[in-house]
Amino acid sequence: MRAEPLHIEEVVDGLRGLLERAIGERVALVVRCSRGLPPFVGDRGQTEQLLMNIAVNARDAMPDGGTLTIEATLATRGETSVLQLTISDTGTGMSQKVATHVFDPFFTTKRSTQGSGLGLSTVYGIVADAGGEIEVASTVGQGTTFTITLPTTSDDAPPHLATDAGAAPSATVGGGQTILVVEDNDSVRAITVAMLTRNGYRVLEAADASGALVLADTNSFDLLLTDVAMPGLTGRELVERLRERGRAGRVLFMSGYSSDAFVERRTLDPIAEIIHKPFDKTALLSAVQTALGNDVHATT
Q1: SS3 category, 178
Q2: Are residues 188 and 266 both part of a single domain?
Q3: What is the CB neighbour count within 10 angstroms for residue 89?
């Protein structure tokens, strides 16, 4: 976690284009963020993932269209002021029985090919890491509202200036290399693709290994960036299929699991790099640079 003081209105504004792309044209996005709100301490990349995960769930609950509303205000909890982030949709809603399980890992009402059941459990973990709380209220046929409260801080920092002391990439854009991104989570894939394209890389994207194999038949690429656990073929099996066709070169795996577990099971390619989710732009681009074996760096 790269903790830094964040202004929620700035995070939402910076992500607005990606959110609109993720929810599609049939869903209207309404943003109401009070100006001058105090910052909270969190990880920018994780906060963006939180917003994207909830937005994608809301989109799926509004197949015929609707409205996704994001509001940020200052609220009071006892004698303490907190940042309150409310995200609501006008979708199909959930029964009380389903709502009580939405943050459980691997719980999903979707088909196995449509979701892993980790989106909202990831959101819960991100909120907890930031010292906050999250609640859900839903009515069948009327929609769902997530209410997130986060402790505020009196400290501040310029936008995009992380307090983490880790090395950050320099301001040189990517060298135009082509990266094939394979990720079944829509929100993670959208954020990953955006971070790469904004920093000078050409990106091909697929939601699963089957789609990646189709793309690989007609396109060349310099790096395969693939999730490990996916419906159908796994990331490791995808690499094997590509190498059988003489199409795989450098590989960078994405995973939400510990690298130690993979080393013990020897399930991943020993020469491949691995990056753990959730990650921010700095971590992603550094891992890409290492996997490509070059000195190309990132823009701000």
Answers
A1: strand
A2: yes
A3: 26
